[in-house]
Amino acid sequence: MAAVALNGERVVVVLFIGLVLFSLPFSLLLHGVALSLLALSALFVEIRADDDASSSSSSLSLFKTRPGVSSGIFLGAVTLPVVMLSKLIQLSRALSLRQVPLEELEYLTMQYWATSASSLSVLVFLCMVIWGSPDRTRPPYTRSLVDAKLSLSGIVLFAVVCCVSIAATSHTGFHAVLKLLWVLLHGLAAVKLIQHVLSTFPSCASIGEALLVTAGIVLYFGDMLACTIAKVTGYVDSLELVSAQYGVKRSEISIIIQGVLLGLLLFPMVFKFVLRIWECSSISANSESRTYKIGKSLIFFASLGFILIVVIPSWMQFAQDFSVHPLLWVISFVFSEPLKRLSLCMYWVCVIYVSVLWFYNISKNNKIERILLRKYYHLMAVSMFLPALIFQPKFLDLAFGAALAVFLVVEIIRVWRIWPLGQLVHQFMNAFTDHRDSDLLIVSHFSLLLGCALPIWMSSGFNDRPLAPFAGILSLGIGDTMASMVGHKYGALRCSKTGKKTIEGTAAGITSMLAACSILLPLLASTGYIFTQHWLSLLLAVTVCGLLEAYTAQLDNAFIPLVFYSLLCL
């Protein structure tokens, strides 16, 4: 029974959490207790959910998750809270040296509680679905009853710890209530959003993957909403929803990226609403007619242009007080160092053109297996992002935002089959899909780009760990690629009876990441970075990252960079 409860993925996640808790300072003790309770609750919910999924009348069958994988609830529930706690550990070191103001720590603390509340609320929702199902096939006194009691106990204790921690850091009871309400709203939004994601995109993600995406989007939207509220009311200090972060001038690049990405995520709802109005007012709404397709296409591009040129820049100027239109600011930023940045753009265009053309021809002719073809894209990411991160990190931040915006627009065009590009994009993208993608939603390119970008974006501001921004590039571009290639060609010993990953591939991935770090550190030292991390902690981080890649059935492009980043911040 214990062996089933602690499979390879769960053991690695427990090790990951243990390393973070071991690094906690005393000032973050309550946060560590809360994370432990959240992890225990998530573990028991996942065990119960996986047992329930194996029954003939699964209560979770109403969610059509990605077939052939476990629920991933444990990993999905703890990943973002652990990332936030690792950042808190990093900022607490800076605060002790007086390198950051207290407001930054308070802001990140609210982010931690918000992500934890999102995960906890989804766990409560899953508990209600599982234990509220009319399944009479099980006897009343089984291990499921024990799992239910343990999960609910952990959830209640977590809520108590959260209330105590927030109350202890608030000036008055009113401020504490406002903060708790803000955290609760994140949880309610996460529950609503995960239902929408799983129903709108069936068979596209596991519950754990959907939980990670949901918690991230809710946190990002909440950050934007709090910034807007602070600007509207002008009472940042009295509201204390997210601390004084919103009274401090944030970077223009972060505002631009946030505005564009969230605007594009909301755009499909706007387009759907406008399209319905047009269809109701149109005499003929035959979706197969050429006139309808052209009209739909015109409405799409007109709505997209209005959102990108008018609506989003208006919010940016309101939130950041740009002296010029944000688009003009971007142009002036690029041309502030024209030789370096335009040369880098030309280099990227050449690499993308040659690589995509070559890979597409190989894919069409079936000259190479799909899994190896996809790993070549990981190597392409290394060749593109590594030089830029070393020499032009701010420009790379902006470039990642632009690339992700392009990916979102292209995917929306593909999903909605917008004439004349929709079908062509669909046929082209199908050449690079695998078993984790579906006809409805292709996520692999998003996960690779975000896996490389998120550690870089999260390292903006104070960062005393020079390898942390490289977490995505090292884990996906080097470690994951070498593990797949070596394991595919030379692998003989399986890591588990049910998985396809091999010991040889895992060893190659860990070794290649360590080798890349040993090469990268002297190069970073020559540009002024100081390596302050012990080699033993680096070895542990790389090992945990390699083991997670070997044992998890979840989308590794999404989880592994965040896990590696968290451990590098310690």
TrEMBL record:
> Where is this protein localized, as stated in its record?
Endoplasmic reticulum membrane
Q: What Enzyme Commission number(s) apply to this enzyme?
A: 2.7.1.108
Keyword line: Endoplasmic reticulum, Kinase, Membrane, Transferase, Transmembrane, Transmembrane helix
Organism expressing this protein natively: Castanea mollissima
A GO MF term: dolichol kinase activity
> Can you tell me which family this protein belongs to?
Belongs to the polyprenol kinase family.
Family annotation (InterPro entries): Polypren_kinase (IPR032974)
The record gives the membrane topology as:
Multi-pass membrane protein
| Entry annotated with the keyword Ribonucleoprotein | no
Keyword set includes Methyltransferase: no
Q: Specify the protein name.
A: dolichol kinase
Q: Which cellular components does GO assign to this protein? A: endoplasmic reticulum membrane
- What is the top-level taxon of the source organism? Eukaryota
